[in-house]
Structures are given as structure tokens and as C-alpha cells.
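Bumping with the actual sequence this time:
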Amino acid sequence: MISLLKKFWTILSKPAVHLSLGFLTLGGFMAGVIFWGAFNTTLEYTNTEEFCIGCHEMRNNVYEELQTTIHFSNRSGVRATCPDCHVPHNWTDKIARKMQASKEVWGKIFGTINTREKFQEKRRELAEHEWVRLKANNSLECRNCHSAESMDYTAQSPRAAVAHSKYLATGEKTCIDCHKGIAHELPDMTGVPDWN
């Protein structure tokens, strides 16, 4: 056992050219920790409402709309921020969403929605992208706060209780199927079949 440890120590202490393998391993580990810390700190900063509304496209459009909804101000004092609804909490899903969001950075750089008029022109397209994404992940972000198992159907309107118990229990529909426009103004839905 001691001879095995001596061999291991000899390998780690031999110079690679000018530095020992142990020093390079330890240095690589420390560089990895520093990189991971910087990456995670940056990721978390980009996952704040302050960052989201940092550009006037968001602050003067969708953020103003959010401020008039129950997700912003309500009797319980619980407030949903941009990332609560638009970024999954699970790390792997969050990374995938951040990669998708890189297209939004492209839009910021090239000014495709930098005025209210341009934003309104693209509003339906942008909303449909979000609706498709939420439909595909079974409204994962909604379910971070809203649980079908925890719902008190007796405290809901009769129509909501029937819809929630029918659709959420069977998985036939997901939150976004019925709750489009819950936090932001709806785009012009003219011409959309079955829109009520």
C-alpha cells in the first residue's frame, strides 16, 4: 500500500516540462472552480428581473403590462418576476432556455423590436414562440408555483374548477392552453381558429 502511494506521489511530483503534474492538476482544478463560479454567477445575474428589463424594449413594453396583473401585485404579496415565468428552475432546462434566448440578444443588437411600433408588429410572433415553448414543456414554469395537486377547487369559480379538474387531471391541456395573456397583453388574434 505504501509503495503504491509512493508511486502515485512520484508521478504527481515529476515535472511535466517545468512544472510538476501535481501542480498542473491542482492548478487545473482551481481554474475549473474559478471558471464554474464565474459562469454560474453570470448565469444567475442574467436570470434576474433587473437584467431582463435592462433594455427599454422589455421595460417599456411587457414589464409595464406585467405591473397591472395579479402576478405582480396581489393580496398574498407573492410576486412573479420575468425569470419565474420565462426560465425553468431546473439547471439543464435553464441552460437550454438560455441558449434559445440568445436569439433575443440578436434582436436586441440589430434593433428588430427597439421601438413600441416594431414590438407590436412582432408581438404575435414572439407570443406564439412562448406559447409553443410552454406547451412543449407542459407549462413547466407555471407548475413551479402552481400545483394541480394543491389547488382548492372549492375556492375557484365553477367554470375554473371544472376546467382544472378535467384538463389538468387528464393531461389533455396544459396551463398555457387557457391562460394566454395572463401576464401580458394578447397580440391581435384575428384569424386564429377557435380563439375565444
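The C-alpha cells above came from a reply further down the thread. The chain has eleven helices and no strands.
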